[in-house]
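Retry 2 of 3 after timeout on previous attempt. Resubmitting structure tokens to design endpoint.
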């Protein structure tokens, strides 16, 4: 091996050099960047040291794994107990397929946060307020400190109920953390080393609290902070929130709430009340209030603080254009929908002038920004009450929007005076996945989905960044399926899965269910189909992440969900019947799809619904697969398998009419309606009798799009399972029928909640209640990768992939898929009488490539014949490293190792 083959990309808990983690057995991961054929790991050694100097001297005084024989490029720490707020240094070397050792990797670090409640030594504080807490309240907090020497290292651990922006010496250094219940309150650790100076300094926090709503549990206003500064003179300074802090009300004016879901106010900011320099040293805060000290942590209601080692990434987007209306209003167009906050710089403000603004998705015929269409009845206004002179208006809360209207600003606003500060969950690379094909519309759909999934990922996976910023389970599952494969994202998906696991224990431990949205202000609320879908999410996440910790954490809940399904199996029909959940609402006993018009006439008037039963089949299949991965006892796995087989048999016996699957039944009769939902799910889950697969697949393809964005991944999986890539391409590119191409044709730039957002046939009130920024519809990206590029994850634990280019639908496709081992790249092309494919399999991985080889064809790899018209030519390919193959039924299955390979079939 060479120095170039040493490990790189070192991560702790999927993060590079994370700060403030509280996982006491963190997982350490690495990869090797090499294009060498057959390159793989056979062993590794990890050193963890207390100092960089010891690590450089090859001393693992904290932990030395010794040489461990394994192909897995990851290890869970099992050394000495880790210490609060300590920094650890680590490196790794690997042994390759020949037994040669690499050089040591460059060093990496991780830092622990406060691990115990006693480690905080800080109090929860808030601005005093008489009576009930006002929703949408904004408060400033500040504290000055003097440091006796230069700062070597400084960290702030901070948490706010609900959100905050942290400033040091006048500059904002971080914002907010994820919403949570007070007994599981998140905190963040922020590096403030460069922001602090020897001498006078000031800490400032802008804090907001909105009360309960979507994504916001019931809680109280509160702030806690702990600064730890290590100084050049060897001393250590700790500053915490306590009675020495000062507070004052923010400059936000009382205003109505945007809607009843998120409890955020319309943001009207009085610039005259904004205290310039409030977070800088030597600011006069004599008129500010003494804070209310609620008690040293833990104190009611905050019982526990949990580290969150990820952040929101922000970047400025300038408008594409601006238009002045007859009313003198200016309308700025940012080109597509973003989640973010508008920022407007006024150069000539006038004291007391109120400038009204409005964000939105569409424009009316007169050019103004629509107040209703696409907004889900959200009041998307802003207002700036100016002071004299230059000033910048910047609200706190984000919305999803494309247009910003500024009414009569009193000056000409140029494009560089207005921007949207777009925001999304930090990911390793927003452009990690690529796709380009012979069909331009398919490429545009891929980009639509990529953009939507990115901006649908905030503190949680959000339902929409406009009205419901809560994390719905099915929305989160759909978005996670994209972010993990498009960006290499792991940490938000892990957090989301763990939060829904918490929802089970908080509300549903006796019944085996999960919350439909979590965390949330309305507490205990479920949707049966969402609960049934949870095991699929756990398995799909594991396949791409190799996150065994989450698999182990989620498995007891997966088993509880399986038991929940089995308990509802009716003895007479053998079917899941009257599945409890969603009581008293439109989701009772199964939502089928959402919004309601996306059911396309599905017949729900049956106690045994086909979609519920088919999801139950998949629940039991995934429970068995996850249990097997964790090495659960054979009788346990046999239980899942037997109940699944029994349920599958009952579905075919009762819900398959010999031609198609109908929507439901009872003991006496069956529905006469055969929906696309029922038949697509039957195909996707492999329940269709073998002799009927062609007929059912034809029906599913011929009816077009008759499933909504929430459930459409099962339609795409049905095309994959029945080998109908051309039908999938037709679905993706049909601009006349419902679907993604239709969204693009109507000017949409973000996936919608329903295909009918701009459908004149939908009742006006319902149309206005539909979101035009709903990332759950982005799942198409994953199936473009799986079906049209041909890349699927087969086994996360051993780095196995399946590459099967489609037989029709496209002439060519090129793309890149991020994996735990590095990017997997594929480029294939089909021309008259010939097919070629090149692929690069990353280090430590393997792939099985399926090539079409009908009679009288030849196939070769790197110019060496694999197959002639007479059959396989083993001897001719013996010298091609990293290749093995098997020919059956007109298809050549070629097993390849790491490296780049070029195949051709003629």
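Retry 2 succeeded. Sequence:
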């Amino acid at each position: 091996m060479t120095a170039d083959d040493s490990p790189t990309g070192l991560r702790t808990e999927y993060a590079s050099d994370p700060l403030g983690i509280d996982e006491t057995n963190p997982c350490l991961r690495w990869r090797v960047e090499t294009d060498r054929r057959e390159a793989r790991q056979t062993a590794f050694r990890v050193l963890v040291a207390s100092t960089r100097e010891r690590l450089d001297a090859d001393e693992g005084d904290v932990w030395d794994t010794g040489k461990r024989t394994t192909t897995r490029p990851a290890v869970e720490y099992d050394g000495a107990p880790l210490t609060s707020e300590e920094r650890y240094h680590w490196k790794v070397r690997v042994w390759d397929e020949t037994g040669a050792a690499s050089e040591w990797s460059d060093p990496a670090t991780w830092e622990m946060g406060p691990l115990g409640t006693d480690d905080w030594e800080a109090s929860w504080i808030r601005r005093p307020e008489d009576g009930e807490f006002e929703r949408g309240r904004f408060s400033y907090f500040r504290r000055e400190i003097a440091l006796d020497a230069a700062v070597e290292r400084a960290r702030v651990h901070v948490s706010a109920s609900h959100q905050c922006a942290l400033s040091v010496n006048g500059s904002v250094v971080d914002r907010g953390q994820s919403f949570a219940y007070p007994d599981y309150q998140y905190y963040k650790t922020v590096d403030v080393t460069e922001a602090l100076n020897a001498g006078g300094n000031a800490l400032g926090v802008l804090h907001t609290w909105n009360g309960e709503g979507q994504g916001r549990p019931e809680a109280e206003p509160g702030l806690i902070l702990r600064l730890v500064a290590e100084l050049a003179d060897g001393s250590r300074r700790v500053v915490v929130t306590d009675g020495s802090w000062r507070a004052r009300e923010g400059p936000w004016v009382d205003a109505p709430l945007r809607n009843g879901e998120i409890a955020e106010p319309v943001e009207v900011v009085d610039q005259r009340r904004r205290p310039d320099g409030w977070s800088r040293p030597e600011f006069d805060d004599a008129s500010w209030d003494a804070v209310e000290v609620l008690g040293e942590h833990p104190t009611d209601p905050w019982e526990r603080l949990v580290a969150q080692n990820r952040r929101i990434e922000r970047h400025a987007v300038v408008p594409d254009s601006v238009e002045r209306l007859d009313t003198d209003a200016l309308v700025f167009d940012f080109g597509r929908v973003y989640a973010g906050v508008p920022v407007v710089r006024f150069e000539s403000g006038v004291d007391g002038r109120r400038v009204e603004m409005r964000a939105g998705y569409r424009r009316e015929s007169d050019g103004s920004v629509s107040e209703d269409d696409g907004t889900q009845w959200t009041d998307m206004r802003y207002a700036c009450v100016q002071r004299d002179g230059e000033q910048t208006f910047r609200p706190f809360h984000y919305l999803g929007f494309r247009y910003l209207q500024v009414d009569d600003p009193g000056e000409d606003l140029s494009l560089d005076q207005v921007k949207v500060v777009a925001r999304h969950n930090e990911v390793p690379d927003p452009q990690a996945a690529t796709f380009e094909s012979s069909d331009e519309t398919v490429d545009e759909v891929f980009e639509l989905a990529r953009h939507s999934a990115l901006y649908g990922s905030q503190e949680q996976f959000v339902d929409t960044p406009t009205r419901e910023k809560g994390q719905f389970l099915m929305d989160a599952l759909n978005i996670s399926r994209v972010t993990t494969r498009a960006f290499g994202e792991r940490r938000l998906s892990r957090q989301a899965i763990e939060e829904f696991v918490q929802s089970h224990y908080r509300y549903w431990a006796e019944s085996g269910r999960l919350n439909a949205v979590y965390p949330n202000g309305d507490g205990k609320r479920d949707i049966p189909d969402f609960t049934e879908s949870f095991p699929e999410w756990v398995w799909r996440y594991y396949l791409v992440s190799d996150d065994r910790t989450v698999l182990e954490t989620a498995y007891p809940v997966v088993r509880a969900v399986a038991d929940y399904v089995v308990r509802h199996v009716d003895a007479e029909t053998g079917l899941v019947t009257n599945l409890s959940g969603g009581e008293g609402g439109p989701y009772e006993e199964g939502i089928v799809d959402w919004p309601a018009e996306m059911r396309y006439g599905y017949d729900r008037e049956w106690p045994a619904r086909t979609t519920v039963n088919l999801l139950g089949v998949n629940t039991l299949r995934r429970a068995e697969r996850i249990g097997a991965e964790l090495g659960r006892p054979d009788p346990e796995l046999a239980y899942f398998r037997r109940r699944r087989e029994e349920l599958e048999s009952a579905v075919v016996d009762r819900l398959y009419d010999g031609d198609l699957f109908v929507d439901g039944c009872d003991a006496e009769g069956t529905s006469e309606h055969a929906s696309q939902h029922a038949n697509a799910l039957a195909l996707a889950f492999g329940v269709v009798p073998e002799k009927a697969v062609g007929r059912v697949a034809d029906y599913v393809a011929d009816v077009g799009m008759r499933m909504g964005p929430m459930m459409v991944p099962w339609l795409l999986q049905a095309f994959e399972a029945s080998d109908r890539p051309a039908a999938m391409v037709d679905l993706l590119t049909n601009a006349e029928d419902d679907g993604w191409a239709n969204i693009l044709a109507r000017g949409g730039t973000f996936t919608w909640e329903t295909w009918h957002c701009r459908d004149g046939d939908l009742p006006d009130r319902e149309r206005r209640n539909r979101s035009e920024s709903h990332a759950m519809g982005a799942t198409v990206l994953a199936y473009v990768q799986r079906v049209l590029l041909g890349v699927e994850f087969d086994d996360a634990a051993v780095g196995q992939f399946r590459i099967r280019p489609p037989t029709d639908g496209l002439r060519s496709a090129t793309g890149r898929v991020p994996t735990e081992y590095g990017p997997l790249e594929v480029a294939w092309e089909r021309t008259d009488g010939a097919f070629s494919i090149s692929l690069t399999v990353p280090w430590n991985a393997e792939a099985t490539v399926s090539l079409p080889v009908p009679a009288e064809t030849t196939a070769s790899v790197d110019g060496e014949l694999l197959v002639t018209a007479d059959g396989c030519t083993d001897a001719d390919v013996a010298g091609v490293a990293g290749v093995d193959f098997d020919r059956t039924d007109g298809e050549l299955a070629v097993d390849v190792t790491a490296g780049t390979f070029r195949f051709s079939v003629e």
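Attempt log closed. The chain has a mean pLDDT of 94.
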